[in-house]
């Protein structure tokens, strides 16, 4: 029994020792693994920390290098000094900047107009003439407007597009303007011609001393005028009884007691030409343009005039020059001939929106002379306008301003004024500081 107990105890102890050794080995292995993991983790942490430290150092060095490029160094408020002169300069600079920027905005919003000159290739068939003349010393009944171009085409009595308004000698309107029809030329019956049919022989009217013989009669106003013309006398129709109740007499009686306002538009061939406003009735004899001023002599007509408006083509308020508008011309004597030589320059305007517009600009040269019998000059009294078309055309084109140009100008305004104001402020501050130091040194000494 004792032996068996010893054997059993020995076996039990051996098994216990084996279990203990097994636990010890397991714990040792676990501890070794923990230690190894901890050491590896420590090494990894050290490597990570060293790597992050290196990257941080590189970033700081890059930022330091970049910081050296700062052209606008900052000063703490503790070290800044505010002065009254600086405040005044700031206000002035702000006002100037705002004013200039507003002007730049207006310039940017306003379209830019470019000019171009090229040969005129347009094919217009008619030229529109806009005119407005005032003749204060000649009646409308004795004023004619005629036009002629270089092709030889004559337009007599251009009144279908022209209005005439009667005026008194003070320039006041007598009646409403009238648009007159084209007058047909009529053949005058000579005093020696007999009428086609006579039903009653009228009484013999007086010729007021102009009769060639005692049997000559002047029963109409025209017969009296013809008799005076044959005698080369100057008739005074106001003294003739035959002229007081006749149409011709009434017209002749008020020839110099009224004025005339002529205005309107007319279209002529788009070639070189001329038009004139002259006293008398106009007609053509053998392709010669003639004005009949009978019973008066040409020296009695005062061609004083005012050009209210004279233009060519459509008017739209841009790119037009009208140098004759508002021109008042006084005739120093009767039978004055005023000539205007006009050079017309066709003009095209291309707006940002809308159709292309066509008009004309012109330059003018004025000449005047006396055509009375005593002067020896040829011509007839009146206002003569000769125009000629230029082969070149002026083109005006509206364009929008560039946004980059606007931004550049605004930056230049702000930066320039800010820089100049800073220089002025530095000079003022330094000068005041130096003066104060000298004053303090003078007081201490």
TrEMBL record:
GO terms for biological process: endoplasmic reticulum to Golgi vesicle-mediated transport; retrograde vesicle-mediated transport, Golgi to endoplasmic reticulum. It holds the Pfam family ERGIC_N. Residues 207-425 form the Endoplasmic reticulum vesicle transporter C-terminal domain. Residues 66-155 form the Endoplasmic reticulum vesicle transporter N-terminal domain. The chain crosses the membrane at residues 20-39, 84-103, 412-435. It is found in: Endoplasmic reticulum-Golgi intermediate compartment membrane; Golgi apparatus, cis-Golgi network membrane. InterPro entries: Erv, Erv_C, Erv_N. It is a multi-pass membrane protein. GO terms for cellular component: COPII-coated ER to Golgi transport vesicle; endoplasmic reticulum membrane; endoplasmic reticulum-Golgi intermediate compartment membrane; Golgi membrane. Keywords: Membrane, Transmembrane, Transmembrane helix. Belongs to the ERGIC family. PANTHER family: ENDOPLASMIC RETICULUM-GOLGI INTERMEDIATE COMPARTMENT PROTEIN, ENDOPLASMIC RETICULUM-GOLGI INTERMEDIATE COMPARTMENT PROTEIN 3. This is Endoplasmic reticulum-Golgi intermediate compartment protein 3. It comes from Anopheles christyi.
